[in-house]
From TrEMBL:
One of its GO terms (molecular function) is acyl-CoA hydrolase activity. The keyword Ion transport does not apply. Pfam families: 4HBT. It comes from Rhodobaculum claviforme. Keywords: Hydrolase. It comes from the Bacteria. InterPro entries: HotDog_dom_sf, PAAI_dom, Thioestr_dom. CDD domains: PaaI_thioesterase. Residues 49-122 form the Thioesterase domain. This is Thioesterase. The keyword Hydrolase applies.
Amino acid sequence: MDLAMDAGALEAFLAVEFPQVAADFAVDAVGADGVTVRLRVADRHLRPGGTVSGPNIFALADLAIYCAILARIGPKALTVTTSAAIDFMRKPAAGVDLVAEARLLKLGRVLAVGDVLIRSAGAEAVVARASLTYSIPPER
């Protein structure tokens, strides 16, 4: 299976289309099975108690699936989330990045479905699990 975008192309796309958050994330790997995306955890991502906030964990999951889809279909900015569910399973480790492993379960012409496992960098235990569905804009 051919990939339409590699890690560098995805990061460049994010820098143009989502400059407000692109620097928070790094695309660590892109492959036929999916992508690995990192949240570069900083103080602004923390909630009281010093742990990464739920909205930031969700943003990582959402961005990871978005990148997995674009890696396969190319830079279609209007590919959008239509459904999402996330389970927060444990507190992330303090002071380390979060790493999301996203894989596509189905990539159709109109819909894509994927899942994401998020871990603290260097840890085996899953912090969160998410399932997302995206709508892919029609070809024109």
